[in-house]
Amino acid sequence: MATRIRPSSKRCAVIGGSGFLGRHLVEKLVDRGYSVSVFDIRQSYELPGVSFHQGDLCDKQALLSALEDVSLVFHCASPAPASDDRLLFERVNIKGTQTVIQACIDAGVQKLVLTSSASVVFEGTDVKNGKEDLPYAKRPIDYYTQTKIEQEKLVLKACDQQKGFLTVAIRPHGIFGPRDPQLVPTLVDAARQGKMKFIIGDGTNLVDFTYVENVVHGHILAAECLRADSPICGKPYHITNDEPVRFWDFMSEILVGLGYAAPRFHLPYGLVYGIALLLWLLTWILRPFMSFKPTFTPMRVALAGTYHYYSCERAKEHLGYKPVVSLKEGIKRTVESYPQLRRGA
Ligand SMILES: NC(=O)C1=CN([C@@H]2O[C@H](COP(=O)(O)OP(=O)(O)OC[C@H]3O[C@@H](n4cnc5c(N)ncnc54)[C@H](OP(=O)(O)O)[C@@H]3O)[C@@H](O)[C@H]2O)C=CC1
Ligand SMILES: CC(C)=CCC[C@@H](C)[C@H]1CC[C@H]2C3=C(CC[C@]12C)[C@@]1(C)CCC(=O)C[C@@H]1CC3
């Protein structure tokens, strides 16, 4: 009888490996001696030791060719959170994740690490030092979060120690760093349009912003700790910088670092949220006639005006996690990485 060759434990696949987090993860894995298959809908770079497989994760056959001889899979693909395409989120984050799980099982993959989000427990009201045992949001702030909840449930439920298919979910929050297409570019765009003069609320709300290398570190620790007898099987883990910061201080540091003025004038949270909601409704109604994307969506206003920071004690205890880059250093590296976004550039 032919014996099945056990895939090398240093051979892994990163689904979503062309994206912001995915690429940082791939680079670190290569540094650590892994050989990596990237599966993504697009290819954005080339790297020695990395093979690229272009395809849609909803296509199981396409996935299977990228998972050949792979024992460990990271799933960090998702449509951009700023999209309001509900069907796309459902197709990729829910149905696509079911396909990923099935493809992993069919390919004999032993470990699946999902990039979830700490926002799966966030309903637009304060979360202070939230732990992993908080219930999933009953009223998630948007379709993105709604489908991240379903996605996380699917992956954690699929964990089967008897069958040797092990899963874990990492819940990062507010990832930032070089090449991030979202946070800094949106902020600078708003500043260039003169929209960053105001602080929403009293400006004291603490939130987590997590430097991308810390998020990568949490993923790799989780993968390396994931064994049939480990307590981490089928569990979610918050990964943060462990340095909650005032939302508006963080934004101001990035803005000032890039040569823009920090926001100064306060506006009441309820008023801004109400206006954002009205604008959102209006753009929704007028969608067939015009396309207009407001900067201050209700979701962004909720994130800008409430507390949302999370405890990473469980990751420290079970994974031996500790942030490797401080917030101050992360901000410095991020600001330096965007010369093209500096004021006047
Ligand atoms: N950024 C953040 O602050 C946070 C992110 N997360 C999670 O982290 C993960 C990575 O996020 P981030 O790196 O910021 O996102 P990116 O958009 O930069 O990366 C996601 C990648 O997945 C690709 N992708 C999208 N749909 C498919 C598909 N159907 N098949 C294959 N590939 C696909 C994207 O391609 P394309 O760009 O062409 O769509 C992109 O290359 C996501 O799961 C996100 O939910 C969690 C918490 C916070
Ligand atoms: C008020 C304003 C215009 C701020 C600009 C920055 C925002 C674009 C970011 C501030 C908090 C960020 C955030 C996310 C995306 C970018 C921000 C809204 C996520 C929604 C990304 C995906 C997640 O899983 C949760 C994140 C929470 C924080």
Automatic annotation (TrEMBL):
<keyword id="KW-0520">NAD</keyword>
<dbReference type="InterPro" id="IPR002225">
    <property type="entry name" value="3Beta_OHSteriod_DH/Estase"/>
</dbReference>
<keyword id="KW-0256">Endoplasmic reticulum</keyword>
<keyword id="KW-0472">Membrane</keyword>
<comment type="similarity">
    <text>Belongs to the 3-beta-HSD family.</text>
</comment>
<dbReference type="GO" id="GO:0005811">
    <property type="term" value="C:lipid droplet"/>
</dbReference>
<keyword id="KW-0152">Cholesterol biosynthesis</keyword>
<feature type="transmembrane region" description="Helical">
    <location>
        <begin position="267"/>
        <end position="286"/>
    </location>
</feature>
<keyword id="KW-0551">Lipid droplet</keyword>
<keyword id="KW-0444">Lipid biosynthesis</keyword>
<keyword id="KW-0812">Transmembrane</keyword>
<comment type="pathway">
    <text>Steroid biosynthesis; zymosterol biosynthesis; zymosterol from lanosterol: step 4/6.</text>
</comment>
<dbReference type="GO" id="GO:0005789">
    <property type="term" value="C:endoplasmic reticulum membrane"/>
</dbReference>
<feature type="domain" description="3-beta hydroxysteroid dehydrogenase/isomerase">
    <location>
        <begin position="13"/>
        <end position="264"/>
    </location>
</feature>
<keyword id="KW-0752">Steroid biosynthesis</keyword>
<dbReference type="GO" id="GO:0006695">
    <property type="term" value="P:cholesterol biosynthetic process"/>
</dbReference>
<protein>
    <recommendedName>
        <fullName>Sterol-4-alpha-carboxylate 3-dehydrogenase, decarboxylating</fullName>
        <ecNumber>1.1.1.170</ecNumber>
    </recommendedName>
</protein>
<keyword id="KW-0007">Acetylation</keyword>
<dbReference type="InterPro" id="IPR036291">
    <property type="entry name" value="NAD(P)-bd_dom_sf"/>
</dbReference>
<keyword id="KW-0756">Sterol biosynthesis</keyword>
<dbReference type="GO" id="GO:0000252">
    <property type="term" value="F:3-beta-hydroxysteroid dehydrogenase [NAD(P)+]/C4-decarboxylase activity"/>
</dbReference>
<comment type="subunit">
    <text>Homodimer.</text>
</comment>
<keyword id="KW-1207">Sterol metabolism</keyword>
<keyword id="KW-0753">Steroid metabolism</keyword>
<keyword id="KW-0443">Lipid metabolism</keyword>
<keyword id="KW-0153">Cholesterol metabolism</keyword>
<dbReference type="Pfam" id="PF01073">
    <property type="entry name" value="3Beta_HSD"/>
</dbReference>
<dbReference type="InterPro" id="IPR050177">
    <property type="entry name" value="Lipid_A_modif_metabolic_enz"/>
</dbReference>
<keyword id="KW-1133">Transmembrane helix</keyword>
<keyword id="KW-0560">Oxidoreductase</keyword>
